[in-house]
Amino acid sequence: MISKSQSAAIADVRNALKQIWGYDDFRPPQGEIVRSLMEGKDALIVLPTGGGKSICFQLPALLKNGLTLVVSPLVALMENQVQELRDRHLPATLIHSQISPQKRRQTLKQLEENHLRLLYLSPETLLSKPVWNVISKPDISINGLILDEAHCLVQWGDTFRPAYRRLGAVRPALLKNKPPGSKIAIAAFTATADPRAQKTIQTVLQLQKPQPFLLSPYRKNLHVKIQRVWTPNGRQKHLLKFIGDRKGKAGLVYVRTRRDSEELADWLREEGYKTAPYHAGLDSEQRRGIEADWLGGKLTFVVCTSAFGMGINKPDVRWVAHFQPPLLLSEYIQEIGRGGRDGKPAEALTLLCEPTGFLYPEDKQRQQFLQDNLRQQTQQAKRLINKLPKRGNLDTVSAQFPQSAIALSLLHAARKLTWIDPFNYKITENNLSFSEDSNAIAIRQMNQYFGTRDCRWKFLLEAFGFEKEAKSFRCGHCDNCDRHQ
């Protein structure tokens, strides 16, 4: 039974939701998530793209005293969310590698004066000495740590961005310097985390009895299709027909690299389409200009990498085309999820080479390159491990062994290393034999999805741990279901 004080608190939260965002009430399970975070509990939240994740942590942060740190993987994502908050005159800002030294100093001063409620930063920036030295001060009140797009911890944490592996040591290290009785809640948010990823996130972040909020990724209005192509020319023809049949309707074309986005955008412009490439290599002003043109309808579609879409709220996207297939199911779900956020029908087409890749091996080569690169990093780390001191400081060790951060991250993933704090480690065992890389397993799963003859949404439900919902499931609107009707 809810007490009078709890009822009043819930009413205050709803009032704030109405006043700040203009919504009369929450969509399930937003209200339950907000209540959990307001109570200072750890949580693991898996909500489909477009499920309103950001409000779930922004609202409690704005209503509580002290600072909430939001760890985010991409500059574009941070900028979009912070700009939306600033447009509402709310106390939020960000720190990343591309801001000026003057702006960084201003933000650190705001931090020291406890003037902020939300601070967005990458894991690397959070663990940089200038930022850490400020947030560690006893008089800097911190009430929460949010890991946004938490699947990146699993996807990138072992070798690409090893700072993710150190995040579990942040809370205990901060609390050592805070007044007695201080509490810092941790919540991880993502649209894609299978049971294995959920366990990794929970373990790495050292979540304490986290309350799970897990929603099925199924979107009944999103119609998915896989199209096999035999030649580069065939791939272009299929894309042109798909876009041409949907003239005037907002969409997105996804590619895998910056170069691909620029080359494909140039070619589509030659074919008469008004579009633009979008990737992480653009500066802030360029990105904002393209986003504004797309949101305002000046550009019907954008040719983009995975850097586009996170945090950009355009509800009427009617189609998403993957000119090149994603390497991982987590990427795929994130990217097709940009379509149909208004609940109306949307289509998601993926173009990929025929299974053998004999005539057109590009997709297989891309997968092989990633696996070879990961294998090479792993082998280098394995050779380095025996040279590392059993106890050490990351900065000191990195100065002597440039690849040590990856080696330490892999040791942590194998539970052979403990982070004493975010900067000092202890190796418990260094005679390490590496198992198959998690990304290699994920790539194999992606290929199984492309090859399945069963309902594609059934496959996705099973892959993300919703076996109960997947039993006897048939969406009736994917390409495989259409074929069997």
How would you describe this structure to a colleague?
With 485 residues, the chain is of the alpha/beta class. 45% of the residues lie in helices and 15% in strands. The chain is built from 21 helices and 16 strands. It has helices spanning 4-21, 30-38, 53-63, 75-87, 101-112, 123-126, 129-135, 151-156, 170-176, 195-205, 232-244, 258-270, 284-295, 329-336, 362-385, 394-400, 404-413, 438-451, 456-463, 467-470, 479-484, and strands at 43-46, 67-71, 92-95, 118-121, 142-147, 185-190, 211-214, 222-229, 251-254, 277-278, 301-304, 319-322, 346-353, 391-393, 417-421, 424-427. A seven-stranded parallel sheet has the order 3-4-2-5-6-1-7, sandwiched between helices. Helix 13 links the parallel strand 10 (277-278) and strand 11 (301-304). Helix 2 (30-38) runs parallel beside helix 3 and helix 15 packs across helix 17 (404-413). The longest helix has 24 residues, at 362-385. The N and C termini lie far apart (49 Å). The mean pLDDT is 90.
